[in-house]
Design a protein that fits this description.
single chain; alpha/beta; Rossmann fold; five-stranded mixed sheet; 5 helices; 5 strands; about 35% helix; about 20% strand; globular
């Protein structure tokens, strides 16, 4: 009997797609450690986008992806996750993402696919999503970007602007 009451209360508090506002705009989440030089390129992209104040584009800078981000992710029409890539090819890559099969998070941080699954499972909507990775060559202690990663930041900004303007076509999910 007690289990049934708790279940009923939970269902009443959980948002349904009808109660949740319709998806609007592009959400850019730049994440990484700004005290490890090039690893901080994700937040720097988010900060640069916020300064541009592009219509319909909202940017968040954070050190890592936490479960609390599922709410703003669920409210976006498109989500772009921006991160540094140490072991990636030497160019900026933008790949379509699909939600993970499960929204279970085993640590304090989540992957972009897990955040999409969490947005879907808790808030009823997972947006179209992209993972934009920028090559990093120096992740030593410090705050500035290397010249190489700074060029990647500029290229990433152009990719995001193209997607925001509708010029970029979707690719296959990761």
């Amino acid at each position: 009997m007690e289990m049934q009451k708790a279940s009923t209360i939970f269902k009443r508090q959980q948002m349904t797609p009808e109660e949740h506002q319709s998806p609007a705009g592009i959400l850019v989440i730049g994440y990484g450690n700004t005290l490890r030089r090039d690893d901080g390129v994700g937040p720097k992209v988010a900060d640069a986008l916020a300064a541009l104040a592009l219509p319909g584009v909202h940017a968040l800078a954070c050190p890592l992806l936490t479960p609390e981000l599922a709410d703003p992710v669920s409210r976006a029409r498109v989500a772009i996750f921006v991160d540094a890539a140490v072991d990636a090819p030497l160019e900026v890559q933008m790949r379509k993402l699909a939600p993970a099969d499960t929204s279970q998070i085993m640590a304090h941080a989540a992957s972009p696919a897990t955040l999409l699954a969490l947005a879907r499972d808790v808030f009823g909507h997972a947006p179209e999503a992209w993972l934009l990775t920028i090559p990093a060559e120096d992740i030593g202690i410090g705050e500035g970007l290397s010249a190489f990663t700074r060029r990647g930041l500029e290229s990433a900004m152009e990719e995001i602007k193209r997607l925001a303007s509708g010029e970029r076509s979707p690719g296959p999910p990761l």
